[in-house]
Amino acid sequence: MESLVVPVLILLAVVAGVMLAMRALGKRKAAHPAATPQPAATSAELARAAAAKLSEDEHRRLYALIAQGQAMAAIKLYYEATGDGLRASRDAVGALAAHPQPYRSTEAAGPEPDEDDDEPQRFPYRYRAIASKGDVTREVSSNMLNDEIYGRIRTLARNGDREAAAMALTRHSDISMKQAREFIELLDD
């Protein structure tokens, strides 16, 4: 009987240690809950704030990297441009990709544009949107497009509403509906 006392005491000590470790881990998880997805409004606000930290050249290069699917390079660019932390840079680039923002200079920051884009405005520059798949490449060039509008068109196409995306593209460019449908078909994200 004496020979069993020591192993039983060791077993009890191990069980008690495991229970204490589990309890401490449970308290730590309760103190630091897992990150929950941000509501869309917060993500859009984050995108606006993130875009405001970028120069015009940085903004253009960042969206070029996002459009090419180079998320890591985009995060690195944002990280180096703003000095924000790595996690904050990752979140900002994700928000900018989900909610495309046009470049706004800090001197000319005016009222927010309407979300309703029924009446396309003309910009002082021509915007080029390029889509390709395999050997087929299509380009749309218009002074009624910008990053924000093109981002909405891409979102419509990604969400499966290709007809609405094609209609929006024709409304903001001088191409036919047939050409717009061909362009939208190439937007394979």
Overview of the structural elements:
59% of the residues lie in helices and 7% in strands. The protein has 189 residues and is mainly alpha-helical. Among the domains are: 40-98; 127-185, no CATH class. The chain is elongated and about 95 Å long. The N and C termini lie far apart (71 Å). The model has no long low-confidence stretch (mean pLDDT 81).
Overall shape: elongated
User: From N to C, what is the helix and strand string?
Assistant: HHHHHEEHHH
Rounded average pLDDT: 81
First-to-last CA distance: 71 Å
Q: What structural class is derived from the secondary structure elements?
A: mainly alpha
> What about the largest sheet?
2 strands, antiparallel
As a percent range, the share of strand residues is: 5-15%
Percent of residues in helices comes to 55-70%
